[in-house]
Amino acid sequence: MRTAKLRWCIEHDYREMKQVLGLAHFEGRTWRGWHHHVTLVSVAHAFCTLQRLTRPPNETASA
C-alpha cells in the first residue's frame, strides 16, 4: 500500500512539474541549458511544496 501511495505522489508531482512549472517547455539544444532548466523547475517545485506544507490549513488557494 505504501508503494502504491508513493507512486501516486511521484506521478502527481511529475504532472505538476510538467503542466504548472514548465518542465516540458524546454526547447534548447545543449546539455547545460537542459540541466539549468530542470534545476530551476526542481527548485520551483520544492519551493511550492514547502509553501503548501507550511501554509495554515484554513487557506484554500492552491499553488
Q: What structural class is derived from the secondary structure elements?
A: mainly alpha
Major sheet details = none
Fraction of residues in helix: 55-70%
Total of domains: 1
Number of strands: 0
Distance between the termini: 27 Å
Question: What portion of residues belong to β-strands?
Answer: under 5%
Task: Give the low-confidence spans.
Answer: none
Mean pLDDT: 88
Number of helices: 2
Structural write-up:
The protein has 63 residues and is an all-alpha fold. It has one domain (2-51). 67% of the residues lie in helices and 0% in strands. It contains two helices and no strands. It has helices at 2-19, 31-54. The protein is extended. The mean pLDDT is 88.
Short description:
The chain is mainly alpha-helical and 63 residues long. It has helices at 2-19, 31-54. The protein has two helices and no strands.
List the keywords.
63 residues, mainly alpha
Question: How do the helices and strands line up, and which of them pair or pack?
Answer:
Blueprint: H1 2-19, H2 31-54
